[in-house]
């Protein structure tokens, strides 16, 4: 049997929205996912980006969707598994 280290024995069970860091990371995950869906929808319709004026094809829309979902996944994992920091 492998003995537990002090870092694994003393972890606190905090919820997803209990610290400011996890709230911010969850918000970033939600915004990134929504931006990814917006890119996919705009690319599917063959539309243009409102600010930049670039015309999107379905391929660039899907690339934007995957990029947004990738950032959302990393931010969500950080929101769930990161410890609050040195100040607590």
Overview of the molecule:
- The structure is a single chain.
- By secondary structure, this protein is mostly helical.
- It has one domain.
- 61% of the residues lie in helices and 0% in strands.
- The longest helix has 26 residues.
- The chain is elongated and about 55 Å long.
Structure keywords:
single chain; 88 residues; mainly alpha; elongated
Low-confidence stretches: none
Ends: how far apart?
31 Å
What is the ordering of alpha helices and beta strands? Answer: HHH
Number of domains: 1
| Alpha-beta content class | mainly alpha
Quick one: how many beta strands? 0
Whole-number mean pLDDT:
82
Strand content: under 5%
Give the helix/strand layout.
Elements lengths: L5 H4 L10 H26 L12 H24 L7
Helix pairs in contact: 2-3
Keywords: Membrane, Transmembrane, Transmembrane helix
Brief characterization of the structure:
The chain is mainly α.
């Amino acid at each position: 049997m492998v003995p537990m280290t002090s870092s694994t024995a003393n972890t606190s069970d905090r919820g997803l929205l209990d610290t400011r860091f996890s709230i911010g990371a969850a918000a970033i995950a939600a915004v990134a996912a929504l931006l990814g869906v917006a890119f996919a929808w705009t690319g599917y319709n063959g539309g243009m980006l409102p600010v930049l004026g670039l015309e999107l094809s379905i391929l660039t829309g899907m690339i934007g969707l995957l990029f947004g979902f990738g950032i959302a996944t990393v931010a969500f994992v950080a929101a769930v598994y990161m410890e609050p920091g040195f100040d607590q």
